[in-house]
Amino acid sequence: MSDYERILYKTGDKIARITLNQPEKRNALSLKLRSELVDALRRAERDDGVSVVLIDGAGPVFCSGYDLTGPSVPQGGWISEKWFDGWSDQFARNAVKDWLTIWDLMKPVVAKVQGACLAGGTELMSMCDIVFAADNTRIGYPPTRAQSAPDTAYFPWKMTMAQAKYMQLTGNSISGKQAADWGWIAKSFPPEKLEEEVMKEVRALASIAPDMLAVNKGSLNETYENLGFKNALNAGVRWHVMSMMKVRPSAGEFRRILNEQGVKAALKWRDDPFREVGG
């Protein structure tokens, strides 16, 4: 079924299923997990027996975001610790690079989302070609309240201007059902029917020839790229590094509270003002 440490990988019925498999950490996106996910995506693309890729998460939560407890820089640095890593935001650059693997894959990638999908998890989700979620899934990007702009600046591409500004400025979360109503995701289902309904959709999609799927995906993607999609994501990296650097007066406050008082205190400081509005 799998030869990975942080994900599960299995194939059958023309479907490659990649499962984020760190439920004890709410499937937080560590560097190791991301590396294995990208490898599995490319593996599925090479497999002539696979037509569709399905990404899901083990346990009650699809993905809680990037892993804040593990290393944020690989051993030896990203490119050059001396010349680039300290100022050019290689973390965000490589996050965008990883998620563009999904975008550029010649096979459609479907996400099945349950429980919660937050911060970096919404980047992974939003770069998938089709997303299905449980009605009660909590989806949002709370770190935009205090920590940084998104690493992958998908908001303007996934919803209306009014919705994008509301979500990114407030950091609030919405339900899977509301995300479907907004068009952020394709469909939502009652949580007890999520697996059954998603597999119906994915099996039907997998009945289409891979070359036909590739043509349709490529046709759609090229239109968005002509509108500036990839350029906008790359520009988002520069906004991300600006939001993280000390030139922004309140940058680092969340991390300071986290280091001095712990994660609960930091989250309380960041999120308490939004409790009454359901954020």
CATH 4th-level superfamily: 2-enoyl-CoA Hydratase, Chain A, domain 1
Beta-strand content estimate:
5-15%
Q: What's the average pLDDT?
A: 94
Question: What is the count of structural domains?
Answer: 1
Number of helices in the DSSP assignment: 11
What is the N-to-C order of secondary-structure elements (H for helix, E for strand)?
A: EEHEHEEHEEHHEHEHHHHH
Structural features, described:
There is one protein chain. By secondary structure, the chain is an alpha/beta fold. The protein has a single domain, classed as 2-enoyl-CoA Hydratase, Chain A, domain 1 (Alpha-Beta Complex). The protein is 44% helix and 14% strand. The protein has 11 helices and 9 strands. It has a 6-stranded mixed sheet, sandwiched between helices. The longest helix has 17 residues. The chain is globular and about 55 Å long.
What keywords describe this structure?
single chain, 2-enoyl-CoA Hydratase, Chain A, domain 1, six-stranded mixed β-sheet
Summarize the structure.
Helix content is 44%, strand content 14%. It is of the alpha/beta class.
What layout of secondary structure does this protein have?
Layout: E1 7-12, E2 15-20, H1 31-46, E3 52-57, H2 90-104, E4 109-113, E5 116-118, H3 120-127, E6 130-134, E7 138-140, H4 155-158, H5 161-170, E8 173-175, H6 176-182, E9 187-189, H7 194-206, H8 210-226, H9 229-244, H10 253-261, H11 263-271
Parallel strand pairs: 2-3, 3-4, 4-6, 5-7, 6-9
Antiparallel strand pairs: 1-2, 7-8
Helix pairs in contact: 1-2, 10-11
